[in-house]
Amino acid sequence: MQITSPVVMAQSESERLRARVVWLYHVENYTQNDIAKQLGINRVMVVRLLAEARRRNEVRVSISSPLSDMVALERDLEIAFGVTRAIVAPFSDPDGDPTKVIAAAAGTLISGMMKPGMVVGVGWGRTLYNTLPFIAGATLEDFRVVSLLGGISAARRFNPAEFAWQFAELFMGEGFLVPAPAVVDSPETKHALLERCGLAAIFEMADKLDVALLSVGGISALTTSYRTGYLSEADRRSLIDAGAVGDVLYNFIDKQGNVIDHEVNSRVISVNLDRLRRTPERVLISGGPEKLHALLASLTTIKPTTFVTDEQTAKSLLSAAEQTDT
């Protein structure tokens, strides 16, 4: 699916919403009032979308919408992981890189979520960075963006500060960056930066977030996080030996989603997961086979309200969830 303009993105989002309404009404037998409440729209819109689907001959014995397979995966993810809303981007190559398709779907979502007066916390990584071309910017009053972790000096394109700044620029908002490395040399340095250099005040803004945009990092290979020099190959192997399956904002977690007891976690300059969980809207944007275990853990610990991923990752997550239940 190639998205070339805000108009096309809006059309895709409209089609997605119509397919979800049809699915909930005709397959899961929800009432129109229940659908309106679940999707955050009014009942009149539900009626119109159902009528539009019938006009387009999308309602027969089965749903003929081209997005119906994705809707089924989305509903399965929502049920399996307790997510309020799942968005699955079509992606047929099990060995390919789904970053761009996830970013395109997330960009459409983000464009519709941002409102005046919001405080938005942002993470970092390739997937989040690639959402930028797909976000329809606007001028929003009293709009603030808070970077949720320190900087990565050697990873210029995917630097947390760079993403937070560009994201704030899209909406003509204020950007609040963390002028410190993501990982420092000791817990003492971390304490000094937080308490004596004013960084704690920035992280306290995380208590006032309306939305957090997050991704996860895998640990099975030398990905961007480890090539920066902040974490060596020895650190990576030590974290794996301690049970780490990946990280959220450099908070390294085990397969149950618990922050592991490891000295690296005591040196990280980032918002902790307890604060993140208090954010009303937590949007997890990630996918790919190398992140499967990290995603399973993150879905448990972050408990995202919205999860954006790709078709292949969705199937793998559901398969893993089924194996856990049996």
TrEMBL record:
Alphabetical list of SUPFAM superfamilies matching this protein: NagB/RpiA/CoA transferase-like
The Sugar-binding domain, residue ranges: 66-319
Molecular function terms, GO-annotated: carbohydrate binding; DNA binding
InterPro entries listed in its UniProt record: NagB/RpiA_transferase-like, SorC_transcr_regulators, Sugar-bd_dom_put, WH-like_DNA-bd_sf
Keywords: DNA-binding, Plasmid, Transcription, Transcription regulation
PANTHER family hit by this protein: TRANSCRIPTIONAL REGULATOR LSRR (PTHR34294:SF1), TRANSCRIPTIONAL REGULATOR-RELATED (PTHR34294)
Family: Belongs to the SorC transcriptional regulatory family.
Protein name: Probable transcriptional regulator protein, LacI family
Species, as recorded: Sinorhizobium fredii (strain NBRC 101917 / NGR234)
Lineage: Bacteria, Pseudomonadati, Pseudomonadota, Alphaproteobacteria, Hyphomicrobiales
